[in-house]
Design brief:
Number of helices: 14
Strand order of the largest sheet: 1-3-2-4-6-5-10-11-9-7-8
Structural class: alpha/beta
Order of helices and strands: HEHEHEHEHEEHEHEHHHHEHHEEH
Strand content: 5-15%
InterPro entries: Amidase, Amidase_CS, Amidase_dom, AS_sf, GatA
GO molecular function: asparaginyl-tRNA synthase (glutamine-hydrolyzing) activity; glutaminyl-tRNA synthase (glutamine-hydrolyzing) activity
Protein name: Glutamyl-tRNA(Gln) amidotransferase subunit A
Bound molecules: glutamine
Subunit structure: Heterotrimer of A, B and C subunits.
Helix content: 25-40%
Largest sheet: 11 strands, mixed
Number of strands: 11
Keywords: ATP-binding, Ligase, Nucleotide-binding, Protein biosynthesis
Length: 454
């Protein structure tokens, strides 16, 4: 099989299914075919293979790609064609992948269903009436539908893990700082991480190996040695200590989802692990704290979209103020505006202490819940999301219900920890995700557990 064959197969599959799934925002066909040819020629001339040699991949559209539009699924950036590659994109090129295209998402990664894309929704390949999850919904659907070998997503409050769960694939959010954010269009800088969406855990280990590592261009990048993730997949989890927070399997969790998680815990017990129920008492405040903090950071990060420096400028603005006002009014969708308003309010003088500062304190308490549990246990396990994928349109008029979907993933971002979602069965034909949360920089353990389970 040549690289050209693989890339061919990818575009054939896209041709067959993407009119239904609609995972892509842009295809990179000409360029992909010519780099496939180049890789084949290099190999023919005795060149060596990179770690991910010749694999066709997709990239979430908030990760900048030189020469391929990067829209963040926003009208504001509909014409933005970056002049550089994100660090992760550069690393994947070094590992010799082939970028097939850019994947749909909720606008600026704000959402959990892909319905906030300014261009079109993406549909769940398991059942086209359901959402694929979000915000990396295109990234998850493209892998689940076999359009690409794997993809990159970003996770600020669950945006890799929740769509992975809804689409029956593996999604990992690395420890904050492990993967460079250089070239990731910022949503909430203290929470954002890029990570892999793959068909299985082994692929996740390979992809993480390729993209992680210190980057001087990201001031929050962790300067640590990167372990060999691939060799950590030993299958051996004897003696592993698992904490199961009672808040993660309690009220608000679909009983059928809970049942699948309990079955999964039985499987893990069969492999020699032990689990115990614990309490993470601050879980119930995580969603409120997250929406204040993430929106505050977003209101600041999105100030750069002013109609002057990037993207679309309103053509009927008559002065500078109108350039800002009209470009932003036309360019941003409703959810993005809602968050900018909430964040600006939370940061404004007089309210700062009551909202932003308070939320920061709650963040510390949540981090302490994790520190305590992970002092006595190796990993924390629960569902990735409270339900399976909901129907398209079911929650669009109710942002608060939509926000509550993230209750199980958000705490992990607030604490900066790594977590992986691995499929653990079906409920009424739709996949359920099992979430394995680990200690900071201990990706090797959560990969090992997920791999042993899978
Ligand atoms: N659904 C969450 C939100 O809307 C998480 C998004 C994300 O992780 N990017 O903010």
């Amino acid at each position: 099989l040549s690289v050209s064959d693989l890339v061919d197969a990818s575009f054939t599959r896209i041709g067959e299914v993407d009119s239904k799934v609609q995972a892509f925002l842009a295809l990179n066909e000409e360029d992909a075919r010519s780099s496939a040819k180049q890789l084949d020629e290099q190999l023919g001339q005795g060149g060596s293979r990179g770690l991910l040699f010749g694999l066709p991949i997709g990239i979430k559209d908030n990760i900048v790609t030189e020469g391929i539009t990067t829209t963040c699924a926003s009208r504001f950036l509909s014409n933005y064609n970056p002049i550089y590659d994100a660090t992760v994109v550069r690393k994947l090129k070094e590992a010799q992948t082939v970028t097939v295209g850019k994947l749909n998402m909720d606008e600026f990664a704000m959402g959990g269903s892909n319905e906030n894309s300014a261009f079109h929704p993406t549909y769940n390949p398991w059942n086209l009436q359901h959402v694929p999850g979000g915000s990396s919904g295109g990234s998850a659907a493209a892998v689940a539908a076999g359009e690409v070998y794997f993809s990159l997503g970003s996770d600020t409050g669950g945006s890799i893990r929740q769509p992975a769960a809804y689409c029956g694939i593996v999604g990992m959010k690395p420890t904050y700082g492990l993967v460079s954010r250089y070239g990731l269009v910022a949503f909430a800088s203290s929470l954002d991480q890029i990570g892999p969406l793959t068909k299985n855990v082994e692929d996740s280990a390979y992809l993480l190996q390729a993209i992680s590592g210190y980057d001087p261009q990201d001031s929050t990048s962790a300067n640590v040695d990167i372990p060999d993730y691939i060799s950590s997949l030993t299958g051996d989890i004897k003696g592993l200590r698992i904490a199961v927070p009672k808040e993660y399997i309690g009220e608000g969790i679909d009983p059928a989802v809970k049942a699948k998680v309990l079955e999964a815990l039985k499987v893990l017990e069969g492999l020699g692990a032990k689990w115990e129920e614990v309490s993470m008492p601050h879980t119930e405040y995580a969603v409120a704290a997250y929406y204040l903090l993430a929106s505050s950071e977003a209101s600041s990060n999105l100030a750069r979209f002013d109609g002057v420096r990037y993207g679309v400028r309103s053509s009927d603005a008559r002065n500078l103020l109108e350039v800002y006002q009209k470009s932003r009014s036309d360019g941003f969708g409703a959810e993005v505006k809602r968050r900018i308003m909430l964040g600006t309010y939370a940061l404004s003088s007089g309210y700062y202490d009551a909202y932003y500062l308070k939320a920061q304190k709650v963040r510390t308490l949540i981090k302490q819940d994790f520190d305590q549990a992970l002092a006595d246990f190796d990993v924390i396990i629960g569902p990735t999301a409270p339900t399976t994928a909901f129907k398209i349109g079911e929650q669009t008029n109710d942002p608060l219900t939509m926000y509550l979907n993230d209750i199980l993933t958000i705490p992990v971002n607030l604490a900066g920890l790594p977590a992986i979602s691995v499929p653990c069965g079906l409920v009424e034909g739709l996949p359920v995700g099992l979430q394995v949360i680990g200690k900071a920089l201990d990706e090797a353990t959560i990969l090992r557990v997920a791999h042993a389970f899978e």
